[in-house]
Amino acid sequence: MPRPPIMLTRARSMPEARRAVLSRIGRLTPAFTFAAVLLAGCQSNHPTPVNVATLPEDAGAEAVSEPVAPAVTRVAPVEPGQPGACCLRADLWERMRAGFKFDLAQDNPRIAAQRNWYLRNPQYLDRVIARGSRYMHYIVEEAEARDMPLELALLPVVESAFDPYAYSVAHAAGPWQFIPSTGRIYGLKQTWWYDGRRDILLSTRAALDYLERLANRFDGDYEKALASYNAGAGTVSRAITRNIRAGKPTDYWSLKVPQETSAYVPKLIALAQIVADPQKYGVRLNPVPDEPRFTEVTLDRPIDLARAAELAGMPLTELYLYNPGHNRWLSDPQGPHRLLLPIELADNFRAALAAMPETEYAVTVTHQVAEGETLAAIAARYNVAADAITALNNLSGDTVSSGETLTIPQPRLMLASTDTTYEPRIIALNGKDLSKRGDGSPKRSFYTVRRGDTLSKIARQYKVSPRDLARWNDRSIKKPLKVGERLAVHSAGGGGGSTKAVARNSSGSSDKRVNHKVKRGDTLHGLARKFKVSVHDIARWNDFSPKRQLRVGESVKLYLD
């Protein structure tokens, strides 16, 4: 039977209210913390999950009662009074539980199918918690300040597996997966230098703004708000109208929505159920300290991020994971002029920055435009994208005047003599130099656009998809090419001059390739369930629509972890 909608005004039960009071008392002093834990009971601890794109293999009515196969990280429930039954201090999970507002007692085949998938894949929870632990405290603080359900702090698990570099076939980006247009509506700037959809601070605030607006539209019903976040408010409103005309219930569970949206809310509820009572499901959630991981450091000008990492005393890869909004080697010349740094490194960074001359913030050279010289020619001369020169010099277009002096940005850390406009996102995620050569190792090359070239033509030449080629160069697939423009092409080594595309999953890692020959009855959703990947990933890897019908005998590329 469909459950009633979740309302913001729903009164919390006495146990929930008691947990909320105890959680707040527990944050006052160690003595109070210990007493609160003794009274409230402490949940066991173990990690959270990466993304499940479609319903898992065991989806269906039988999933409710089907036993879950044991996993190595499953543990026997701990009885009260036994060693390990309690902990000395609450962690972020306890704070989140105190702020849960959804009806987590509800169950149905859709929720059970998702919950069983999580329980069968505890390693997924481990990876996602480890990745999300940088950001979770901040998200909880922001949601709590708005009195929003703290289940929403788990939504980046469903959206992006807490991967700030996740990028979908619909061009959604960041931990909250904003598409470009919605991101712009909520103030998330997207330029050659910077993408606010990946900015941890701004994207979180924008996502919560959006969810609040959707909840208000549906009278505080967060299930419908979440469905709208996934499929659009118009889609949900039309589904409600159809049910009203047919005399059917209009709660989320009764609505006919796209398959992905049908699984979307159950994923979050199933995850919240496990977090709310991990002991019930024989799971240990890895503890996440209830304390901030990063702080904001304000700058007065752009800085080379390799220089910033040196001053902070941290790996460049880690700096990018705290600051994934920066697309390039230099922070955005137009701002925001700030960096997020681990709290323990911030003071030393500020001191080192204060002692450093302004001229060392970034490497630049000056160039005086000669008669007849074009922006594309200048960019090619300095091995830098024309957009970088345009942005740094506040040019209104591609035209430059003879005698004009331009400031040309240059990266302090070069990956190779010809690679000065590398994508730091890939470096950050893989921790490797893409310019290296060797059998099977990734490498990067550049192609200079000639007259008559198109994105599809170049993609065919390098045996990659036009979508990937566009994504690697942060451009729209429909944007015309300019003669002299340089395009980055990612490929795998192997000698012989052949070029083979390197496929990457949402976390950026290289996976094992499998060619699946389509059999009678195969569907995209069926393959996604079988191989535990998403329909959109299969579509992206094969450069076709997620709604495409498969043909018997055709070969479908899959990249498996």
Characterization of this structure:
The protein is mainly alpha-helical. Among the domains are: 14-281, Lysozyme, CATH 1.10.530.10; 512-560, Membrane-bound Lytic Murein Transglycosylase D, Chain A (Roll), CATH 3.10.350.10. The chain has 22 helices and eight strands. Strands 1-2 form a two-stranded antiparallel sheet. Strands 3-4 form a two-stranded antiparallel ribbon. The radius of gyration is 25 Å and the shape is globular. The two termini are 38 Å apart.
What is the secondary structure topology, with strand pairs?
Blueprint lengths: L13 H13 L3 H11 L51 H7 L10 H12 L1 H11 L3 H10 L9 H6 L19 H6 L14 H18 L4 H10 L1 H14 L12 H18 L17 E5 L6 H8 L3 H7 L15 E5 H12 L8 E6 L6 H7 L4 H7 L12 E6 L13 H7 L11 E7 L6 H8 L3 H7 L13 E7 L19 E6 L6 H8 L3 H8 L12 E6 L1
Antiparallel strand pairs: 1-2, 3-4, 5-6, 7-8
Shape: globular
Question: What ranges have pLDDT less than 50 throughout 5 or more consecutive residues?
Answer: 1-89, 415-443, 492-511
The ordered string of helix (H) and strand (E) elements is HHHHHHHHHHHHEHHEHEHHEHEHHEEHHE
What topology, given as strand order, has the largest sheet?
1-2
Give the quaternary arrangement of the chains: single chain
β-sheet strand percentage: 5-15%
CATH domain fold name of one domain: Lysozyme
CATH class of one domain, named Mainly Alpha
Determine the structural class based on helices, strands and strand pairing.
mainly alpha
Helix content: 25-40%
* Main beta sheet: 2 strands, antiparallel
Mean pLDDT: 76
**Second CATH tier, the architecture of one domain:** Orthogonal Bundle
Distance between the termini: 38 Å
The strand count comes to 8
Q: What is the radius of gyration?
A: 25 Å
Number of helices: 22
